[in-house]
């Protein structure tokens, strides 16, 4: 199983950025996927998660609710994170991860992790 996050980047405060997580080596639609982030000196934080199957459920961390949107494309085996109204405090290394249950991801428990990608928001 491999998770590949797209390249992050540098963006000004108030701007937008979209991350994509591509998965391979498994039946993508059977698993839930989430994005996490970790800023320097801080613990890893749940950002957003999305369920599997045709009935889509999403969960968001409090710090990003209303600004970030997670979505999935089962045909492409990708999960995207659209980040709008970015703030300097959104600066972190972002990771995508998968598990069999969304609640597991919300609690930081994942079966597989992708490599991190740096997102930097300048003020």
Topology readout:
Blueprint: E1 2-5, E2 9-12, E3 17-24, E4 32-38, E5 45-50, E6 58-60, E7 68-73, E8 78-83, E9 92-99, H1 102-106, E10 112-113, E11 117-122
Parallel strand pairs: 2-11
Antiparallel strand pairs: 1-3, 3-8, 4-5, 4-9, 5-6, 7-8, 9-10, 9-11
How would you sum up this structure, described in words?
Strands 2, 4, 5, 6, 9, 10 and 11 form a seven-stranded mixed beta sheet that branches. A four-stranded antiparallel beta sheet has the order 1-3-8-7, with no helix packed on it. The chain is mainly β. 4% of the residues lie in helices and 49% in strands. The chain is built from one helix and eleven strands; from the N terminus they run βββββββββαββ. The mean pLDDT is 93.
- Kindly report the average pLDDT value: 93
Element order: H for helix, E for strand: EEEEEEEEEHEE
Radius of gyration based on Cα positions? 13 Å
The number of helical elements comes to 1
Major β-sheet annotation = 7 strands, mixed
Percent of residues in β-strands: over 45%
Based on the structure, what is the oligomeric state of the protein chains?
single chain
- Portion in helices: under 10%
The tally of beta strands, per DSSP, is 11
Low-confidence stretches: none
Q: What class, by secondary structure content? A: mainly beta
Q: Kindly, what is the distance between the CA atoms of the first and last residues, rounded to a whole number of angstroms?
A: 37 Å
Overall morphology? globular
């Amino acid at each position: 199983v491999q998770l590949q996050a797209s390249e992050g980047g540098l963006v000004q405060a108030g701007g937008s950025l979209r991350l994509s997580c591509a998965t391979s080596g498994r039946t993508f639609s059977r698993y839930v996927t989430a994005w996490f982030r970790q800023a320097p000196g801080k613990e890893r934080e749940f950002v957003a998660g999305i369920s599997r199957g045709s009935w889509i459920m999403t969960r968001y961390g409090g710090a990003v609710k209303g600004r970030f949107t997670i979505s999935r494309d089962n045909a492409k085996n990708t999960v995207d994170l659209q980040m709008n109204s970015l703030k300097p405090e959104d600066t972190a290394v972002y990771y995508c991860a998968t598990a069999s249950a969304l609640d597991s991801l919300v609690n930081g428990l994942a079966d597989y992790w992708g490599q991190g990608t740096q997102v930097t928001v300048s003020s």
